Amino acid sequence: MNDKPPTSGGDRPEQDRPEVPGSGREGLSPVPAPQDKAAPQDPDTMDEVTDGTSADGAPEIYSVEKNIDLTGKSYSQGQLVRRRFFRHRGAMVSLVALLAITVFAFTSIGYGVIPGWWGKNFWEGALVENMGRPTLQLWPFEPGEYPFGQDNAGKDYFALTMRGTQRSLIVAFTVGILSTIIGTLVGALAGYYRGWVEAILMRVTDLFIVIPLLVMAAVFGKMAGGGIWPLAFLLSVLTWTGLARLVRGEVLSLREREFVAAAEAIGTSSSRIIFKHILPNTIGTIIVSATLAIAATILLESALSFLGWGVRPPDTSLGLLISTYQNSFQTRPWLFWWPGMIILAIALSVNFLGDGLRDAFDPRQNRTAD
């Protein structure tokens, strides 16, 4: 009777079995298999193995390096953002619509000394024809002499609407850009320096937040005296608070990261850390907030002009046109609908653009594949 306990490993060669520590045979290499002996030992060709025979009967060498797929293209962060944004259908339609409205408004009646292609202006009246009804015909397309109709004084309402669109767009984009700059600077300084700097800046921000926006905008609109540029600059002072709080929160998180600590360790100045290292990582939040600020400013300017505290005659804006002809809604509704529809189109386009930018900058969004 064989009392020797069975060894693990089955029919494995004795020298290929694991050795017991202390037996003196530790570290011995197992007997190589025949296929291991045939494997090439050249370090430059160790990733190559035979894979059948070639046409002339010689062993065919299979190279891992030669069969790696090197056609896959890698993308930078900016390229990934662009790809996501351009694949967002709503953002693309909104971008085309906003560009079309902007180009149409500034090229039709011209701007400043630059003439436009439309033959009428917004300040000269004429004889009211057919009760001032629009002559626009969609099918077959025919604009006619007065496509948007005429107002009470016989002015071309298309030219008036394009002038109002120009002024509203100028105010909206000026306020959007300036308020973004102010909010970004305040939020970045408060979040990075903290301490008494943050306390002062945030208390000022809270002061602007607690005062009703429309009330402050009405006061500032009265101070602007109806001028388009003073109104834009004064409204910029009121609409930066939301972005400042958002940027402050982002900077508070980013300043604790390792790359900021490394930059401080090598003596990088605070301004360079803020503008070169921290703010580029908040660009998504900043851009999305800027687009939303533009949409909100369009509605704010329209409300102020409607109440008589924004743009004033002889100039005009979309809100002022609605305010002037609000009593004509029942008898001549086109005087109310044309500026109203353009305000709605601009606000929706900018909001959808902001939605597309948010999805593009947020890597957690899975609406579109990269």
Automatic annotation (TrEMBL):
Record Pfam families: BPD_transp_1, OppC_N
Transmembrane segments: 92-114, 169-193, 200-221, 227-247, 278-300, 335-354
Alphabetic keyword roster: Cell membrane, Membrane, Transmembrane, Transmembrane helix, Transport
Claim: Cell membrane is one of the keywords in the record: yes
Location of the protein in the cell: Cell membrane
Biased amino acid composition, Low complexity: 34-43
Region annotated Disordered, chain positions: 1-60
Membrane topology: Multi-pass membrane protein
Residue intervals of the ABC transmembrane type-1 domain: 165-354
InterPro entries: BP-dependent_transpt_permease, MetI-like, MetI-like_sf, OppC_N
Major subcellular site: membrane
Similarity comment: Belongs to the binding-protein-dependent transport system permease family.
Name the UniProt record assigns to this protein: ABC transporter permease
